[in-house]
Amino acid sequence: MTSSTLTRTEDFKYILSQIEDGIGTITLNRPDRLNSIKDSLAHEVERALDLLEKDQEVKVVIIKGAGEHFSAGVDLKEAFNYPSPIGEQPSEVWRAHLESLLRVSIKLWSLKKLTIAAVSGHALGGAADWVLSTDLAIASNEAKFGEPEIRFGAAPPTLMMPWVVGIRKAKELLLTGDILDAYEAKEAGIFNKVVEKEQLETEVTGLARRISKLPSSAVKLTKRSVNKTYEIQGLRDALDYNVEVAISMFFLNTETEIEGIGSLIKNEGLKGFLDEVSKQVDN
Fold first, then answer.
1. Cβ proximity of 18 and 24 under 8 Å
2. Which of 1, 84, 202, 259 has the fewest CB atoms within 10 Å, measured from its CB?
3. Long-range contacts of the stretch 41-47 (C-beta < 8 A, 24+)
4. Residues in contact with 55: Cβ distance below 8 Å, sequence separation at least 6, in sequence order
5. Can you tell me where the transmembrane regions are (predicted)?
C-alpha cells in the first residue's frame, strides 16, 4: 500500500476531516441536529479547509453531511440565545456570527483545490450558501435546497445565489423563500447532477478521483480564472455589503417576530421549525 492510499484524519468536535487517496473530505457531524451550523462548527470547517489547502497530497476537497442531511442551516436555537459580552453591542455579536459563515463561503470559493458538495436531504439557509460557494455540487434525488430566511424577516447570510443562478431566479427564490427539490435545483444551475440516494457517495468520489488525476496547476489556474471573472464584476464587494444588510434586517424585525421564532424553536425544536417552513411553502 502506497502512502497516497492511506487515510489520515484530524480531530474536531463538530466535523470529521480526513484525507484518502489525494481526496480531502469534510463531514458536518451533528446528525442529531440535522448538521445545523453552530459558530464553533463553522470555525472548524474553516480550519479544516486551511489544513487541506496546505496539504500537498490533497487535490480535491469534498464537503458533505453525516446521516440523512447535508445541513438544515444555522443552528437557530444557538442564534436566538447569543450572549452579548459586557460592553459589546448585540449587533456586533450578530456580525461576528454572519462573518463566520461568510469566511467559510469565501474559503470554499477561493480554495486552491477544487471543492465538491455532496448534498443529501436538507441544504438550507447558511448551508445552502456553502453549497453555492463550492465549485461543483452533486445531489441525491431526495435533496431539498432553499433559503427560506425571508419568511421570518431575515436575510441570507452570504448571498451567493445571484452569482450562481442569475438575477431572475435569485429574486424568485430569495423573495419567496421557496424550497426546491433536487431536480428543480439542478434545472436552476445549483446542482451539476442528481443521482439516486444510494449512488451519491460513489458518484461524488468518482468525480473527485477523475479531477485529482488532472494536472493540479491547470485545475487551480482554471478555477482562479473563472472565479476572477465574477470577482471583477464585484462578487466579493456584494458579499461584504450583504453582511450589513443582514444585520439591518435582523434588528429591524419586531420583538414579537423574533420572540415568535425563538419560542417555536424552543418548544418544537429544529424539526418543528422546518415543519413550519414547509407549511409556509405549501401555502
1. yes
2. 1
3. 41/14, 41/15, 41/75, 42/100, 42/101, 42/103, 42/104, 43/100, 44/12, 44/13, 44/14, 44/15, 45/15, 45/104, 46/100, 46/103, 46/104, 46/107, 47/12
4. 19, 24
5. none
DSSP structural state of residue 70: S
Residue 121 has pLDDT above 70, yes or no: yes
Q: Which of 90, 164, 168, 154 is nearest to 125 (CA)?
A: 154
Q: What is the pTM for the complete model shown?
A: 0.87
Of the candidates 110, 151, 123, the one whose C-alpha atom is nearest the C-alpha of residue 236 is 110
What is the pLDDT confidence band of residue 79, given thresholds at 50, 70 and 90?
A: low
Give the per-residue SS3 of 82-150: CCCCCCCCHHHHHHHHHHHHHHHHHHHHHCCCEEEEEECCEEEHHHHHHHHHCCEEEEECCCEEECHHH
Cβ-contact 241, 52 below 8 angstroms: no
* Phi, psi values for residue 21, rounded to 5°: 55, 40
- Which domains are delineated in the chain? 3-282 (3.90.226.10)
Distance between CA atoms of residues 151 and 174, nearest Å: 10
> For 101-118, how does the pLDDT look when each residue is reduced to its tens digit (9 = 90+)?
999 999 999 999 999 999
Percent of the chain with pLDDT over 90: 69
**Rounded Cα–Cα distance for residues 246 and 259 (Å):** 18
Q: Residues near 99 by Cβ (< 8 Å), separated by ≥ 6?
A: 243
pLDDT digit string, tens, across residues 122-135 = 999 999 999 999 99
